[in-house]
Amino acid sequence: MTITGAVQRTASPVASQGLEGNSAGDGVALRASLRDRAAAIEAAVDALIPAVPGPEARVVDAMRYATLGGGKRLRGYLVAEVAALFAEGADADARAYRVSASVEMLHAYSLVHDDLPAMDDDDLRRGQPSTHRKFDEATAILAGDALQTRAFEILAETATHSDAVVRTDLVLALARASGAAGMVGGQMIDMEGEGRSLSLEEVRHLHALKTGRLIQYSAEAGAILGQATTEQRERLAAYGRDIGAAFQIADDVLDATASAEELGKTAGKDLAAEKSTFVALLGVDGARREAEALARRATEALAPFGEKAERLRDLARYVVERRS
To answer: Which of 189, 191, 205, 241 shows the smallest number of beta carbons within 10 Å?
Structure first.
């Protein structure tokens, strides 16, 4: 599903409960911003993973299949929109979209592996066959591995930033967000939690690692690119952390209430796997209220950035109102 299609869907019931400032005008501006940045990110990914001839072509084709042609580009959008708080212009945009492409590759690797039979065993991703279904399991594993290494390679290249300290900070922050203390650790907790009850705090910790850390990194990466002050970087990391948590809660609600056609992937997987989720622990309405509170807190962190952060405020509202 394209980002435009995702944004234009009817708002979920959480929208009717109200988030201040979410006018029709805000939605139009956000849709345009999401669409334009998604197109630029898509172009960057296309350029940074070019098709190749020869015997390695199959794995590159799988890499391109996993990353191109769909997705919300939420993480890449965050990088670019936060970076624009500090610098604008063609050169700044080019740097930001390289980092956006990098995080989208890292995210795509995680989805390719997450869909494998050994993990969530899902045949659908973004309304299309999962990478291991389109190709085969071995190729999907290798494509995920190559996407992960390409993500770090891009961050280390001088085209991403002339300052080696900035490049090092980007690499370090992504490694911390995606490894055993971040996304991978969260996936392990998720797998271990199947078929047993987790407490609310355990579920919060699980999703802070599995989903939240990469979204938090995306906001923080924009600040690193912009060579933000320590206080600015901390505020933007807090914003990313809170919308990451809100995004996951919204995912739990959608898994319980939306159709496979709306989601572009199998619906009801959490219930079938007997996973502890925010919906299981708080109910649908309680989960929605928690997501809304997190979105409010995220917008508060943006106060010092004024009008330049308006699309980021809109995004905090969007993550809890989306239908896919």
So the answer is: 191
